[in-house]
Write a structure and sequence with these properties.
EC number: 5.4.4.2
Protein name: isochorismate synthase
Bound molecules: the ligand C=C(O[C@H]1C=CC=C(C(=O)O)[C@@H]1O)C(=O)O
Shape: globular
GO molecular function, one term: isochorismate synthase activity
Pfam families: Chorismate_bind (PF00425)
CATH architecture of one domain: 4-Layer Sandwich
Radius of gyration: 21 Å
Family: Belongs to the isochorismate synthase family.
Number of strands: 20
Number of helices: 9
CATH class of one domain: Alpha Beta
Distance between the termini: 5 Å
Length: 438
């Protein structure tokens, strides 16, 4: 265990200031747009052109690495700013903004993309920018085995010896109340989360944290996003792909239903098999795949264009087993990844079912603002391609201070102790990379 301390008196919940950049810094497009003019509407983007010298409030460092490809971006060419943060408004505005940026680029510059993060509450402003600089690179495997069933266990943290195991009575009470409300019929599933505020002896080296979390989680979506204002960096290693779209083909890999990994290979395998057969976890998982199937039906031409396996499979992370279902769809022509992102988000993997009732329970039972936790992080291009992971196994890093987030799906049959233990293990994913778990 290192010198991490738990902050008992946590900072006020992170709020998201609307960032308005000074139009006086406006940079003119280098040449006239090549793309057709798009009419300005009240729901369209108000692109703000800014210098990209890194000194403006739009420095906006963004790192997002899927298991195979890494994207590094920084600087702000334009910021997406829409009056209404709903799917059609965002997708339309993003298209317009990317068309303008494409028209304004120098010869030889790569096609512009949109990068950023979307909060848990999609009606609140997202942090979406067209970066001034972007580069893609292959992710070099660090040698950690990707498939633990074949190659033995990954390093497993022991939460009972570390900070995440600290009792959180408020969370246990919230889970207890949620189960009673579910038993009374208020909803069928709700995902409840908690926070853990820790402080390192000195400012964290986020590059080292990213490398450590990638080593332990070769299949994760590792992100490090500079948030607007002084909100800090959103850093994490999500196991969950909401959607990737390439040339009209969508992949999604929803997860729900979890069990802690064990350092003992026999126990680890037995835990995984128990999870695969757990009625409670299968029920928790089915809410997610059913909801995604229903939404995606509206974005395919024919039922055969949507493939949703009937049963989930096991997915391993450094600390947990999950139930996961790999879904594919051939999208109706003209569908953008952002249309689908906003239509799906938030899924029952992070909110619950039915969505409105679950949101209400979260609002009344969670004593903090989720901000971008259980939101989305990723990128989109002008052709409608993109990749968006759910913001999980993460924290907001400000110098030496980190607010970690972890949640768990609650259904009838869940227990406060079980969900407390599960969230403790979920904290450990990032905390071990921070050096806070022995
Ligand atoms: C909400 C979280 O996990 C979600 C994703 C995978 C499995 C989950 C579960 O089993 O409860 C959650 O739905 C989190 O990691 O904070």
């Amino acid at each position: 265990m290192t010198g991490f301390t738990v902050l008992d008196d946590p900072a006020p919940p992170t709020k998201m200031p609307a960032v308005a950049l000074d139009p006086a810094h406006a940079r003119r497009p280098h040449r006239a747009p090549e793309t057709p003019d798009t009419p300005e509407t009240s729901a369209s983007a108000a692109p703000t052109w800014t210098p990209d010298d890194g000194a403006s409030p739009g420095h906006a460092e963004f790192r997002f690495a899927s298991p195979r490809t890494g994207l590094v971006a920084h600087g702000v060419r334009a910021r997406l700013d829409v009056p209404s943060w709903d799917g059609p408004a965002v997708a339309g505005a993003a298209h317009e903004l990317l068309a303008r940026a494409a028209g304004a680029r120098w010869a030889g510059e790569p096609a512009p993309i949109l990068v950023g993060a979307i909060p848990f509450d999609p009606s609140r402003p997202a942090h979406l920018v067209v970066p001034a600089h972007q580069s893609w690179h292959p992710v070099v495997s660090s040698g950690a085995p990707a498939d633990t069933s074949e190659e033995g266990p990954l390093p497993v943290a022991r939460p009972e010896h570390a900070l995440p195991g600290r009792d959180d009575a408020v969370f246990r009470a919230a889970v207890g109340r949620a189960v009673s409300r579910l038993e009374d019929g208020a909803a069928e599933k709700v995902v409840l989360a908690r926070t853990l505020d820790v402080s390192a002896p000195e400012p964290l080296d986020r590059g080292a944290v990213r490398a450590a979390v990638r080593r332990a989680n070769p299949d994760a979506y590792v992100f490090d996003v500079e948030l607007p204002g002084d909100q800090g960096h959103l850093v994490g290693a999500s196991p969950e792909l909401l959607v990737s779209v390439r040339d009209g083909v969508l992949h999604s890999h929803p997860l729900a239903g979890s069990a802690p990994r064990s350092a003992d290979p026999d126990e680890d395998r037995a835990t995984a098999q128990r999870l695969l057969a757990s009625e409670k976890d299968l029920r928790e998982h089915a809410f997610v795949t059913d909801a995604i199937r229903e939404v995606l039906r509206a974005y395919v031409d024919r039922e055969e264009d949507l493939d949703v396996p009937a049963t989930p499979e096991l997915v391993a992370t450094s600390h947990l087993w999950h139930l996961g279902t790999p879904l594919t769809a051939r999208l109706t022509s003209g569908t953008s990844v952002l249309d689908v992102v906003y239509a799906l988000h938030p899924t029952p993997a992070v909110c619950g079912h039915p969505q409105d009732a679950a949101r209400e329970l979260i609002g009344s039972l969670e004593p903090f603002d989720r901000g971008f936790y259980t939101g989305l992080v990723g990128w989109a291009d002008q052709a409608g391609n993109g990749e968006w992971a759910i913001v999980l196994r993460c924290g907001v890093v400000r110098g030496a201070d980190v607010r970690l987030f972890a949640g768990a799906g609650v259904v009838v049959g869940s227990t406060p102790e079980g969900e407390h233990a599960e969230t403790a293990v979920k904290f450990s994913t990032l905390l071990s990379a921070l050096g806070g778990v022995s």
